[in-house]
Amino acid sequence: MSVGSRIRALAAAWARHDHTLADTFLQDSSKFGLVEILKALTLLDSGRKVRECEKKMKRLELQPGKTKKKAMGKVKSNKDNLSAIKPPLGSMSGALARHVRRWVSRLTAEQLEFYALFFPPEPWKRLADLCHFNPKKDFKLPWFLPYCFGSVAPAGSMVRNCGHLTKENVNELVMTFDIPYAHIKPHKDSLTEETKARIALYTTDLDTLLWNYEDLACPATDKVIHDLLTSRSKVNLPYGKLMERLLTLKMMRQGSHRYQEDDWSSSGTSNDQEEDAPEKASFFDLLIPLAEKRLHEISVPLEPPVVVIGDASSSMGVAIRTSTIIASLLTALTSAKLVFFNGSNFEPDVLPETIPQVLDVATTVRASGCTAPAASLQPFYDRKEVVKTFIIVTDEEENTNSQGGYRFAPLFKKYSEEVYPAKMVFVSFLRGQHAEGQMVNALKLQGFDPLQFKLDSPRPDLTKLDNLLGLLSMGSKSFDEQVTEMEELLTQKGLEAINIQDEDKK
After folding, report:
1. Taking a C-beta distance cutoff of 8 angstroms, is the pair 45, 92 a contact?
2. FRET partner for 464 with CA separation of 20 to 30 A, picked from 47, 211, 357, 417?
3. What Gene3D superfamilies does the database record attribute to this sequence (predicted)?
4. What is the pLDDT of residues 100-124, one digit of tens each?
């Protein structure tokens, strides 16, 4: 759900006085936090703001002398903007302010310190103006709200001490205070091994340690992560991020120097001289069963047969690792056939069905040669082989015909007319979310409307894999059935049904 949708959903729940629904939303702090609450309240308060603007306009009209056009124009512009977002129902009220104050009172001291360290104070000032907070009664840290309005944090507090964190004093401060790693990260290159070990010891969140493992890698960090995993601490990373972590860890253990943030996905060559370093990330094997379990829990109900086509041409550049792992995972999830192309079509040595096989394919396929996507479609056309869904993972920079002399779009049209009207899904690595892909445009000119999921080619982000899987599921018949089933469940049992289902999954 987009941020805008979350804001409108929360505002709608408050507008219809459905505080059970609103409280359910607010329990998910990762989706409904300060930003969503403030903007939802701003929507509901827009009616009052419109009336304020109308009063200002009347005062300006009644002023003796000529009304200043500039002042009137500014007020009218504000009124029009507020009228555009004003909901048909609901307003900011004292009762609603009490609900927000209860949400604030549940924030821990650690959470408030995090807000003070990493967020600008303006949103809190605006929220305070709407809800009239009591800094001592409503906040676990009595100094927090005054700090947002310009006061200095008390001596000895983490906020006071970390306000001037530098590469020169970072190690000293970390040995004294349990500073959140997000605040330390800009100075990661200055950390000593002793400091890394201390950060790992006081960082109880396993996800944070895994997410930032390259920065904190040392034997002590390995032991902390190993102990957390063996004590059955949960890994709550999105599945795409978990796979990216596994790929990075595997490359580190193989001695690759290409796992760094700005270069981990690069294509490399088969002649790279790299020494295995199996002592790194000694907990690696403990993560494999977790990823396998999550893999088997994912359902992508595409109608078989499915073929996944991966782009292994030189133009893929830094996206080659991400693209191959996406192609391999989709193959494992849909029991698909997997092929790759550069100037010609080829198959991987192993059809990936397990997480180790997915990682092997992702680390062995190299980017090379020209870009002839029709080369991978040509064999299915020549054999008249029925495929109901094609998924192509590519940057869409087609520059070469297949050996049969075809470009992708004309060949797909022939396949659809002569073999089977297959569904086409693109996972497109493009330069920006608003960029238009060459191959998708060519297919649209042929009368097709392929499903498309976009990734940024210079900085491909595997954390978006979960969104891709959701998009693929939405296009299936079973998704419509699940929506209908959930709608009926909510109608019969209300929101408690969701909580019951979540408990069952645990």
Report:
1. yes
2. 357
3. von Willebrand factor, type A domain (3.40.50.410)
4. 999 999 999 988 988 898 889 999 9
